[in-house]
């Protein structure tokens, strides 16, 4: 259902809360079959100094005009057992296996003629060179898994919109903030501690945070940390004067990745991944297999078994030197075996 109406050209569009910008909607070009991420356009006319001005505005089908009108879950219930199962399984994985699985499915999508495989949307990795976990310690290597709640600052260096979003966030949410190029901190120790009190899963900010030493105090009810990621650190805080458009108004760019309200956000000490529930579900089985295999191989190495002996390394290296096609894989296809350790069948 589109959360606004097509109005006659002579009618003033009024929204709740009332926007300062009153639009006279000329036409709405939209298909009822649009995917939630596909944009459509609204043409509108306004009058300024008795001069008519025509504008074109881009929207998403689930996006409204005003504050917080975008459905953050795209119709998915948090109580949906399938959805909850995805979140719980992700908590036992790492970014590495998920990236490996994503790479494999991207290759299948690009080479297969199967429509189901080609429809894979993929996971997005936020820039690992800039997006850093600010409260990580070896004693607590918690994984962040939650639902994206997006925030776009209307003015750089002003974090009133972030405070507003925090007041609306719920347990399990991940606040994802684009700071419009802010150079001053838009969150810190107090913010993170309040997020922990609310049992949020994490905070991801394309911009600066501060009070890094206090971020380690952001402990949730279950004893794990609220993971706080940012692209920089600055002890100077911004102002609190501009409320912005609200929470979940539209997708945002964060760490170079496009994040939509309702996306799943995954993060550990190695990076932050974002994608739809469907994309993560597609990767889950392979990522779990990769993780299990790596754990078994690690046990073997610690027992003195050479890593190269558990792979077709020598054969692969020789074939590649000869310019012949080859792929590096573990021996016995998907089954890893070595003395003293139970084998794990990953088929």
Structure description:
The chain has 347 residues and is an alpha+beta fold. The strands form four sheets. It has an eight-stranded mixed sheet. The chain has a three-stranded antiparallel sheet with strand order 1-2-3, with no helix packed on it. Strand 10 and strand 11 form a beta hairpin. The radius of gyration is 24 Å and the shape is elongated.
Topology of helices and strands:
Blueprint lengths: L23 E6 L10 E9 L2 E9 L21 H10 L4 H17 L3 H4 L5 E2 L6 E2 L10 E9 L7 H9 L4 E6 L10 H9 L4 E8 L2 H4 L11 E7 L18 E3 L2 E3 L4 E5 L2 E5 L1 H26 L10 H9 L13 E4 L2 E5 L2
Parallel strand pairs: 6-7, 7-8, 8-9
Antiparallel strand pairs: 1-2, 2-3, 4-13, 5-9, 6-12, 10-11, 12-13, 14-15
Helix pairs in contact: 1-7, 2-7
Q: Judging from the principal axes of the Cα atoms, what is the shape?
A: elongated
Q: How are the strands ordered across the major sheet?
A: 4-13-12-6-7-8-9-5
Any low-confidence stretches, pLDDT <50, length ≥5? 1-44, 53-72, 333-347
Structural class: alpha+beta
Q: Which quaternary structure do these chains form?
A: single chain
How many strands in all?
Answer: 15
* Helicity, as a percent range: 25-40%
Count, helices: 8
Distance between the termini: 43 Å
Strand count, sense and barrel status of the largest sheet are: 8 strands, mixed
What brief labels describe this structure?
347 residues, alpha+beta, 8 helices, disordered N terminus, disordered C terminus
Summed up, what is this model?
The chain is an alpha+beta fold and 347 residues long. It has 8 helices and 15 strands.
